[in-house]
C-alpha cells in the first residue's frame, strides 16, 4: 500500500473534488520543476583539455564520461517527470469525479514515480554541476563549498522522510493531537500526574520508542 492509498482510506467522498484539485497542483509543480532543470542541463557541453589542464588531467580521468553520464540521467529523469505528470493531468481531468478514488487506487504510484524521477534529475544535475565546477576551478575550493550543499540536500531528504512518516501514520492519533502536543511542550505538569501529551519534535517522531507516533 502506498502513502496515497493510505490517505485515501481516511478521505470522505465529499473531499474527493478537493483531492482532484490538489493532485493537479502537485503534478503541475513537479512538471514545472523538472522542466526548469531540463532547461539547465548540459548534455551537449564538452569538456576541453584546456579546461582541466590546471586541476585534473582529463587524459587520465574520464572527465567527459562522468559528465555525460550525470547529465544524461538528469535529462531522462526530468523528461520522464514532465511526460508522466502531463499524462496524469490529462487523464485525471477526463476521469469522472465519482471515479477519482478508483482511478487513484488503479494508479497507486501516480504521485510517487514522477517525484522520484524529478529528484533523480535534480540530484544528477547538481552532481554534474559540481563536477564541472571542480574541473574548472579546482577541488580545494569546491570541497568546502560542497559541504553546505550536501547539508541542504540531507535536510531536504530528512524533511521528506518526516512528512512521509506523518502522512503514513495519520490518523494514528485523534485530529488536533499534534497541534495540542506542540503547544503543551514546556508546560509544567502537576507533580505525580501523567502528562496528557508527549513532545513530538524529537527523534521518536521518526519511529523510535516512547513518542506519540509509536503508541
What can you see in these coordinates?
With 215 residues, this protein is mainly α. It folds into 2 domains: 3-170, no CATH class; 177-215, no CATH class. 63% of the residues lie in helices and 0% in strands. Keywords: Membrane, Transmembrane, Transmembrane helix. It comes from Durusdinium trenchii. This is Transmembrane protein.
Instruction: Give me the strand/helix succession.
Output: HHHHHHH
Question: Structurally, how many domains make up the residues?
Answer: 2
The fraction of residues assigned to DSSP E strands is under 5%
Structural class of the secondary elements?
A: mainly alpha
Task: Give the count of helical stretches.
Answer: 7
Number of strands: 0
Quaternary state of the chains: single chain
On the 0 to 100 scale, the average pLDDT is 77
Broad shape: elongated
Radius of gyration, whole Å: 23 Å
Distance between the termini: 21 Å
Share of helical residues: 55-70%
Largest sheet: none
Spans of at least 5 consecutive residues whose pLDDT stays below 50 are 192-215
